[in-house]
Amino acid sequence: MQNQLIRLTYASTATFKTDIKGGIESEVARILLQSRRNNSRIAVGGVLHYGDGYFFQCLEGDESAVKSTLQRISQDQRHRDVQILLNVQIQRRLFEDWSMKYST
């Protein structure tokens, strides 16, 4: 039996400096690469937005997988002040085909 599907959105403050070697884009690219690898393995999908020093992300999937993903994000040194904005049960996913889409 499959656990309940959920959609969870959060916002967090990025901790990396704007003058890092390779620029912000390289740091976000590393986050995306890691997210896509992890998420496809556990069937979590969603979209990530980064702008003005903040992340906004929507995650969808099995409740336990999404909550495990959020726990990893909360412990990631690149995020600070993780605030859950929405946590709802869903019948169907909007981002089923995306392990992690990026929006600027």
Provide structural commentary.
The protein is α+β, with helices and mostly antiparallel strands. The protein has helices at residues 23-42, 63-75; strands spanning 5-14, 45-51, 54-62, 79-89, 101-103. Helices cover 32% and strands 38% of the residues. Strands 4-1-3-2-5 form a five-stranded mixed sheet, with helices on one face. The longest helix has 20 residues, at 23-42. The protein is globular. The model has no long low-confidence stretch (mean pLDDT 85). It comes from Pleionea litopenaei. This is BLUF domain-containing protein. InterPro entries: Acylphosphatase-like_dom_sf (IPR036046), BLUF_domain (IPR007024).
Quick overview of this protein structure:
The protein is of the alpha+beta class and 104 residues long.
Strand content: 35-45%
The order of strands across the largest sheet is: 4-1-3-2-5
Tally of separate helices: 2
| Structural class by sheet pairing and helices | alpha+beta
The CATH architecture comes to 2-Layer Sandwich
Largest sheet: 5 strands, mixed
GO molecular function: blue light photoreceptor activity; FAD binding
Protein name: BLUF domain-containing protein
Domain BLUF: 5-101
InterPro entries: Acylphosphatase-like_dom_sf (IPR036046), BLUF_domain (IPR007024)
List keywords for this structure.
104 residues; alpha+beta; Alpha-Beta Plaits; 5 strands
